[in-house]
Amino acid sequence: MPEPVLVSIGDIHCTASEVITPVGTFPIAGSQWGVSDQSITTRAIPTWAIVLAIVGAFVVCLFSLFFLLVKEDQTRGFVQVTVVGPEGRSYTTSVPVSSFAAVQDVVNRVGYARNLGYGI
User: Transmembrane ranges (predicted)?
Assistant: First the structure.
């Protein structure tokens, strides 16, 4: 009976004793993990705020300008995760992210996989 998958990071899956990748399987004990955040976050005025400011300018001129103060964060990119097995084999995957919370989720998953490798 195969062990259950405890955590998945993109197409890397970890059980209590092994790391499963598309190119093969190796023991999780002694594995090394790396995370590289390749995402970018931009801050911009959303389209709906611009439309409301223009439409509101005809009704209440001063109040509608407050809509231009609204800012929205947009995150795009990916997080690159690399795992190196004890015998030197490695695998790298890119996980697409669309928010800062998704970046933190990937980092936390890698932290959990590291703890599995330490036997914690």
Answer: 48-70
**Residue 92: inside a domain, yes or no?**
yes
Exposure string of 60-96, with b = 16+ CB inside 10 Å and e = fewer, is eeeebeebeeeeeeeeebbbbbebbbeeeeebebebe
- Look at residue 118 and tell me if it is in a domain: no
* Mean pLDDT in order along the chain per 10 residues (120 residues): 91 94 92 95 92 83 81 94 93 96 96 88
Number of structural domains (the chain) is 1
User: 3-state class of 108 per DSSP?
Assistant: helix
With 0.85 as the threshold, say if the pTM is over it: no
Residue count (the chain): 120
- 109 alpha-carbon distance from chain centroid: 10
